[in-house]
Structures are given as structure tokens and as C-alpha cells.
Amino acid sequence: MRFTLHFLSFFLVLLAGETIARATNARQPRDAALSALLAKRQTNRHEIGIRSYLKKTVKRGVEDEQLDARSTYPKCKMASARTGYAHYPGWKLVGDELSGALPVKPESACIQACNKYGAACSGVFFDSAKGKCYLKGTRTSSWTFSESVSEDGVDLVGGCALWANIVTEEMDAVCCRG
């Protein structure tokens, strides 16, 4: 009986070790793929020239990019890569409002209000006819874009390339040219 008990405990330890080894080996390809994806993302962010404007923060396991508190919104430079804040003249953005309509004029003051709001603000929609500013949150899935006949404009934190997959092709075409 004693021999059987020792043999059984030895067998269980051996089985547990093999199970742990399999779990570790199964995790490595996923970790390698994740590392490769993060490395590519870092490279892409560097290539579009916004590394100096963005800093990475991690909150509750969700990666979020935000403007550094010391940064301002630079103007886009036509001769170089598309950098700065993404400006879309003649467009409206509806959805994920952080506040109601704020009586903030001009559009540059609306952008500064977003900057003071912090990481929760992804950009602004400035309604020129009403002279109102709408701060926008980070839930891009609830955003709706539409063309405007007035002097309205949308400004999103970061460079044009950062938002190219979210905005429409027509919006991307006019980004930083206004």
C-alpha cells in the first residue's frame, strides 16, 4: 500500500509538470504574436511622426493614447508627413458628447477646452453658425460624420493618419488642408 501511494504521488507530480509545460508552450505563440503586433504598432506610430505628441498610458488593461499635458495642438505641415491635430473643415461629428453645447468661441478655444478635459476627450466639433463647441469622447463606434455647408469643423487629437481608419475617405482627403 505504501509503495502504491508513493507511485501514485510520483505519477501525479509528473502529470502536473507535463500539464504546466504544455500550457507554457501553448502560450508562447500567442505571446510572440502579441509582441510582434505591439512592435509593429510602435513602428507605425513612429513612422507617422506623432511620437512626440502622444504618450502611452495603461488604465484597467486598456491601452489609451493621449496628448501629453505639456503639448499644444500644432498645425499640420503640408511639406512633411501628416502630423499635428487632424482638422476636417466642412464636416459635422455627432455622437459621444462629453458635454452639451458649450458657448466657446473661436474654434481654437474649443480645442483648448478639449485639451483641458484630458484623456477622455478625443476631439471637438465646432458649430460655427451657433458658435457652440461639442467635446467628443473616445467611443468612436457611436460617432456619425456628415458634410456641412457652413464653416463647421471637426478637430481630432493626433495626426490625420491616426484617424484615417475611422473617418470617411472624403474626410481623410481634406484633412490638414483647410
UniProtKB/TrEMBL annotation:
Domain of life: Eukaryota
Keyword Signal: yes
Keywords, alphabetical: Signal
Signal peptide stretch: 1-23
The name this protein goes by in its record: Apple domain-containing protein
Organism in which the protein naturally occurs: Dioszegia hungarica
